[in-house]
Each structure stands twice: as C-alpha cells, then as structure tokens.
Please model this.
Amino acid sequence: MRPIEFPEFTFSSPLAKVIVDLERLRGDLGSGTTNPTVFIQLNALFQLMTSIMSARIEGNRTSIVDAIQGVALQGHRHGSSDAEGVKEIVQLQDAASFIDRVVEPGTPITHGLVRELHKIAVAGLDREGDKTPGSYRTSGVTIGGSQHVPPSHIAIQGDMSELLDFVNGPVDQSYDLLKTAIAHHRFVWIHPFGNGNGRVCRLFTYAMLVSLGFTAAAGYRTLNPTAVFGADRSSYYQHLEDADSLEPGAIVRWCTYLLEGMRNDLERLKRLSDNDFVVESLLRPAIRRAMDSGHLSVREAKALVIVAEKTEVKAADLEPAFPGSAAVRSQQIRRLLDRHMLSPVAEGKRTYQLVMAPGDLTPFIIRQLDQLGFLPTILRENFG
Model:
C-alpha cells in the first residue's frame, strides 16, 4: 500500500484557499449569540439528519417521518413493513451517541473504537448487516460499481494500523480537516469490513472531528461531512473512485471536493450561531407550520414560541399560553412532554426546553431548514 501522507499543493491552489477559509470559519463560529442549550438541541437534530443521510447513501429508503418516529421510540416499531430500515438508522444514531460518550478532544482513534462502531451499526441487520459484527473481514471483497479491488484481508490489520497512526499523529491545526479528508478516502480504499464500510467510515470521520476538537466549539457541533456526500451521492462516489489510484493529484482533487463542500456547509451553519436567526427564521416558522397542519393548537403553538424565545421556562412562564389554574397548566405541559415537544432540562427538574429531535416538531423544523437552504438533496426525497 502506498504510504499515507499529505499531498503537495501550491499555496495558490483551490485546496490551499479552502483550507484558509475553513480556518477563518473555525474562528468565527465560536462567537455567536445562540444559547449553548439550543446548540445541544441543534446538534441532536443534525445528528439525526446525518444518520438518515448515511443510511440513504447506502440505499435505505425509510421516510424521514418513519425514521423520526423510530428513533423517538428507540426502534420499537413492531409490524412495520420497513422495520429494518428504521433499525439501521436507529443503530447509526446509537453509534454516533457512543462517539459522543467516549471520544473527547485528544482521544486516540483505535482499532477497538472502529470495530465497536461497526458492531453497533450492523449487528442484527439482514440486508445491511455483516456476519461478523465488530470484526475485520477474513476474506476478499468487491465494491459494487467500482473498479477498485480492496487489499487482501491478510493486509487489513497492518493497513488499518498505518491509517490510525496517521490519524492520531500530530499536525499543524490548519491541516486537521485535510487529514480528515485523506483518512476518509483511505478507510474506504482499505474496506476493512465485509459490509457496512461506508456507514462506519462516515462514523469514523465524525469521531476524528470530535477527537480533533472541532465539536468543542459550539458552532462546530453540527459539523459532519456526510451532508456533503448527501448533496450529490454520485459525485461522492465519483470522487472516491478517482482517488483510488492514490496518485497525489487524485488525492488533491478528492480533498478539494470534500473540503469545499464542508466550507459551503459551514457557511450555512454559521447562520445558526445567530440567536435571532434561529428563533425568527427557523423555530417560529416551524411552529407555525405545525399549527397550520393541525398538529398544534393555537395555545400549544404560543407556548412553544415562548419556550423558543426564552430557551428555558418554568410552568408559570407559560401562563400567557395556558391561562387558568396551575393544575390545568401542568396537564397541558404534560401533553407536550408526552409528544416529545418539550423536555425537562434535567431529570426531575420542572424547568423545560424545546425538543428539536426526535419528536413531533422535528419534521416541521426539517421542512423549514429545507426552505432556508440547509437540506441536502438526499433528504428531500421520500419525506413521509
């Protein structure tokens, strides 16, 4: 296998320019006005959309509405004709949550972590599963629609060790995302598992971003290159195929494609660091959509707007929306809690926050994100 290294490129090249732009955005996104509590909710929303996108890239046709319901119910969808499709998305969510629990800035990416991600993502699936979840493949494999022949299974342990040494090696901060792009392609090139390589590679890439500290800044919590791939699946595969030669020029083209997409995505995400934008352009219209469609009463919509504006509320704060006795107000709040539109800020607390995902409001927020130009093409299909 050709050694993994940074390709040479000129400082006037498109790749150099996009690296500079990404560093600028990295500095800008930590200084917004959006409340950190809201960013946590936005992260949950974008993580759900990322899981749906990752599954759809591999052919999963589960509707967004079914996926949201499945995740909200922890995958217990007995009798569903698309139970496996929902389960696949739920397991991708579980794998992303696992990353958030065990990976921190500076945490090394290890064989054990990569294999655990595979186990969580594919265990128990039929069409999209693997006979040996959590283990590297023990035989040859082909990639559908690709001329690339992955290396022999005998080489996988060594190839993955070289990749992880590259991933965990120190580089100048401005090269962090370039390293992430190179590692993503090389993972797919090695194809270490019998099945599930694309899904696990996208989780692996997210784990790299967490380890490199990108999610430590509030504005980067929604950063995930899966959105780039979901914008044009065929372009994603074409660029991967081009880079399979491992020639420096092809690697530069791959990195330029991915980092340009991430830059464009971050330019959009930067708007979410503006609290007024989040409330007035995203949440208020989404709540209005839910009300207009009959999913919310006028009073419930008014209550959710109050929560969106204040971020955290007590029952008394909702009196303008729910007038009357405290007992009646508690009943109305309970209905919103049961529908996963509100949640306590902490277990046992009687202070409440808006739930962006997963819950009954999620489809309306996603629709509004589409209106604002945030939704990749792959998520506009088969909404529900």
Summary: The first helix runs from residue 14 to 28. The mean pLDDT is 90. Residues 284 and 305 are 6 Å apart (CA to CA).
